[in-house]
């Protein structure tokens, strides 16, 4: 039976509509899928440029260690009468709590501002490291305390409490000026069913007050083992160094500006937090390792590194490098600690920050290196965002940098990291004989022709860096390197002759 033209037209129209509808549905599905797959940051912004590159490098990195360690950090600012308080609080899944508070004042007031921190429990034991003897004190005598970090255990709870710190309300180039004459010790007063920790601060608009603490309804530290004492003993959080609101502060070297015995600077490397994050022998160090690493990570600048704020007179005199400079060793050490934190806490933010630094470093190395005979890269130790002269290259910096790149390559499989590390190792091979001194010790640096700094190698740090390079090459590529072995042997012979111990074995 033949169809008339009208029937054909209707059928054709229906077919076209059906095809169009199917196509429209497919496009809708495709658009929906594409929209859901567009990489975004935690605030919902679409990732572009370097952020997108970092995402692509880390997106397929597998879970390193399954963990439920997902702390929640919040920030709050409150104003009450004369006091403005900035607070950062971290709550852990265990229920443990960390908090740091910073006070500033609207006007001067002759009365000191006292904060009461209630400590649950009926019996109390306080431990601290005596600032003078450097030995542990264990006491229940609340009149036998010192102005230092306190580790407190009651019959129900456990705490660590900082000194009630007082600093000048001036932070030139990321420095803190400690007003020690205005600081007072923590007082602990027994109350009914609890202990009242009293922390006192002067209400002076030229200063800020600050304290931090951690609390738990379980033991933060197992004091029955020597490991706990030994782990905490080397870490100064109150005397020449301070853990503060935005990072870890060290005593300024004598040639830093601003500088002085009461001036501390925000250190890029955060060695204490790195140690806690890497080893985490107890809940206290595990929690603090997370908090300290997260806090310091956020100081990464737009370029991708962590600046040293004060000006070094040495670097300025020799290389015209001013304040807020780039120290390759301190930065690389912190970036390496981010890898420890990523592994122990399984937090992609730590890994992403390390990758951001690696991308900065690749660009820095390509533009701030001495190219060796066979195309190796000897990377300059120091840099700046402002114009300056080329700096020297020290062996310990070079090794730490290539070790970091190899470790990051092992996690991400990003080939550019291995390629740069290989070129940096090649540069050491090309210059192997230049690193050995007549007495067998290693030269601290090459390309340093100034007289400001003696440039003597560390007793065993560089040997440890070589040892780590050796271990990484064996672990990752099942290979050895003759130059690494040669330099280790020379340094080891020198250390033995000079009774140097403490090196890695």
Q: Which CATH architecture of the largest domain is right?
A: Alpha/alpha barrel
Helix content: 25-40%
The DSSP helix count reads: 12
Q: Roughly how many Å apart are the termini? A: 95 Å
- Write the CATH fold name of the largest domain: Glycosyltransferase
Could you list the spans in which at least 5 consecutive residues all have pLDDT below 50? 1-20, 28-33
Quote the beta fraction: 15-25%
Helices and strands: which structural class? Answer: alpha+beta
What is the C-level CATH assignment of the largest domain?
Mainly Alpha
Biggest sheet statistics: 9 strands, antiparallel
Number of extended strands: 24
Q: Could you say how many structural domains there are in total?
A: 2
Our Rg estimate from Cα atoms comes to 28 Å
Judging from the principal axes of the Cα atoms, what is the shape? globular
Mean pLDDT: 92
Can you describe this structure?
The chain is α+β, with helices and mostly antiparallel strands. It has two domains: 52-70 and 304-505, Glycosyltransferase; 82-299, no CATH class. It has twelve helices and 24 strands. Strands 1, 2, 3, 5, 6, 7, 8, 9 and 13 form a nine-stranded antiparallel sheet that branches. Strand 11 (187-191) and strand 12 (194-203) form a beta hairpin. Helix 9 packs antiparallel against helix 10.
